[in-house]
Structures are given as C-alpha cells and as structure tokens.
Design brief:
single chain, 11 helices, 0% strand
Length: 219
C-alpha cells in the first residue's frame, strides 16, 4: 500500500479520470473537424501539435498544443482540489500516459511533452519554469525542438529533487517517490524520442521552423 491511510476510491477516480482525459486525441479530433482528414496519415503520423503544424494551419496547431498542455494541467488540478496534491501528481501522470497510449487509438498516441509540461505547470510551478527554461535554452542553442524537449525532461529528476518539498508531506510512504517519478517520466519521453535522438546524433534532425514539413519532435 502506498497510502498511509484513507480510501483508495478517490485515488482510483483521479487516476482513471486523468487517463481518460489524457487519452482524448485533440490533434486527431481538431484536424478532422477542420477538414484535414486523419492526422495519422499526414507527416510523421503523430497526433501531437508539431505534426498538426504540417497541415500548414498554425492556429490549429496552437490550439492542439494548448489543449494537450491543458489536459495534463486540468487532470492534475482537479485531483489536487478534490483529493490532495499527491493525487494530483498521479492524475496528471495518468493524463501523460493517456496521451502516449490512448485506448481510443489502439494505444498509439503522442510523445507526452506538452501533457507532461501541463502536469507540472499545475502541481509544481518551479519545476515547470525550470523545464521551460531548459527547453528554451536547448532549443535556442541547437535550433532543434526535439533537443529542447529532451533537455527539459533530462532536467526533470534534478528539478523534482530540488522542488519536491510537497512530496515529503504527502500521504505516500515511499521515500523519494517524486524524484523516482521524475526519472520515470524522463525515461519515457526519451524512449518516445529515440528516432529523434538518432537523427540528432547523425546531424539529420530538422531545424525548428514554423512552416509545413518541419521539425519532428512531437508533443
């Protein structure tokens, strides 16, 4: 048992609700509604905002990005409000997993960057700010969006260690669980970006651009 006391029912509802919210494929839904067809048949086939940008509709891509960030933040914030901060962390994490592996799409989704950032924006703004700054620095230095995403999540375990004060006061009895979670999320994002990592090493990763057919670091 990870809880020292209390019912598991609110936790179950928080985590399952977070997953179902995260599994909503906004990229697929919005591109279909906008008349572009199935986004999975465009570009890299990913449902994230970067692939939506390949339609040439920047406003649509921005909308998908906001919604993907928002579903992680909303899942975390609601669970925090009704159950507690630690439940908010896991609800946001469940939304992150839902975005990566949505049940509605045969468990083939995005890469989790936007939803992960949204989760930390809700549960720990210092961690979010730290990740955002690392993303901006890495992306600016390399002109590669994927490098920014990889850098941001590489910094996540350190940021959770530095700004994990709430975790020591939570109902979860496992020591350093917040840092362990940081490592786990970072590992998943790096795994989902393994093709980008290979291209970065080879020097073939596309540079950041706001035109159709650009960078392939998906959200």
């Amino acid at each position: 048992m990870i809880l020292e006391n209390g019912s598991l029912i609110p936790w179950f509802l928080s985590v399952s609700g977070g997953y179902l919210l995260g599994a909503v494929p906004f990229g697929l839904v919005l591109t279909w509604l906008a008349g572009y067809g199935d986004i999975r048949k465009i570009g890299s086939g990913n449902i994230g905002a970067t692939n939506v940008l390949r339609t040439g509709n920047r406003l649509l891509a921005l909308g998908v990005l906001i919604l993907d960030v928002g579903k992680g933040g909303l899942a975390a914030a609601l669970a925090w409000w009704f159950v507690g901060w630690d439940a908010g962390v896991f609800a946001g994490t469940a939304a992150f997993v839902g975005h990566l592996y949505p049940v509605w799409l045969g468990f083939r989704g995005g890469k989790g960057v936007a939803t992960g950032l949204g989760t930390f924006a809700a549960i720990s703004w210092p961690v979010f700010i730290g990740m955002a700054l690392v993303w901006l620095a890495a992306a600016a230095l390399t002109r590669r969006s994927s490098a920014g995403a990889l850098g941001a999540f590489m910094a996540l375990p350190l940021l959770t260690a530095v700004f994990g004060g709430r975790a020591t006061e939570s109902a979860i009895a496992v020591p350093y669980w917040f840092v362990i979670l940081g490592f786990a999320l970072a590992a998943v994002v790096w795994y989902k970006h393994r093709a980008n990592v290979a291209r970065l090493i080879q020097g073939t990763e596309p540079a950041i651009s706001f035109s159709s057919g650009s960078d392939e670091a998906e959200s």
